[in-house]
# Entry
Amino acid sequence: MHSDKRIYHLIPSKNEENLPFLFESPHSGTFHPEDGDEHIASGKVFPGVDRFVDELFAFVPDMGAPLIHADFCRCYIDPNRALDDMRPEWFDAPWPHPLNPSEKSANGIGLIWPKKCGITHSPDDIQDRIDRYYRPYHQVIRDEIDRLHEQFGHVLHISCHSAPHKIMKPQINPRVNYTADIVISDQFGQTADARIGRALRNMFKNKGYKTMSNDPFQGDELIRAHGSPQNNRHSIQIEINRALYMDEAKIKRSAKKFSKLQNDLHEIFTQLHKAHPLT
# Structure
């Protein structure tokens, strides 16, 4: 049994005018259950943590939208991976279901991160992580999307992420010769109406940000699982260059840059709501 059951925080709207938006940060969690096999030292945070992203979007409830952020560390179990995104050699006994490892699993960052931890796992342990952390996180997103869809008839789910400056370079389009500040992803139109991504890219560009679409990130399981544009349920992923708001080497917020980016995000998503791209 896990001695600490911290899974997520759901911060509801604090504004009388509710918006048909749901924001969530799946990779900002730093809690690692004490009985995890990885034996991560107290206070240690893995590089994959999207540091300060939940704080960047702390304005969201005051704007009129709920904000969800995971408390658990993604190396323990990653809610942005498919449940079959694992490799058989990660286990000390056969996994009871078919596996479909992706390139991310080949790099040790699939549903769990065994290469970061250096040991194999029991299937029962991983199933327990799925049941106690992964499924509840997806369920609260599903519940909020259902609630907002019932209220408005449409909903936009925004999955919020950050990435190191060095990997914000295009991998698909060779004609792009710049490092992106912002990448908006919708799995090439599969998880959201394309007008939403276009509107957001233009808004960021108008504020001086270099933007890209679905390159180098296309979005992963969270927008795939919850995006259904044909049913007016739209999901996008926003990836933010960490150099915009923090000192990556010192792992510290850069106060002025952080404040500017946060203000810009607030203005952009307020503008997006007023533009009504969902209807």
Summary: The mean pLDDT is 90. The helical segments are 53-56, 60-63, 103-106, 114-117, 123-152, 194-206, 221-226, 255-275. The domain at 8-79+133-275 is CATH 3.40.630.40 (Aminopeptidase). The beta strands are 8-11, 21-25, 67-70, 155-163, 182-185, 211-213, 233-241, 246-247, 252-253.
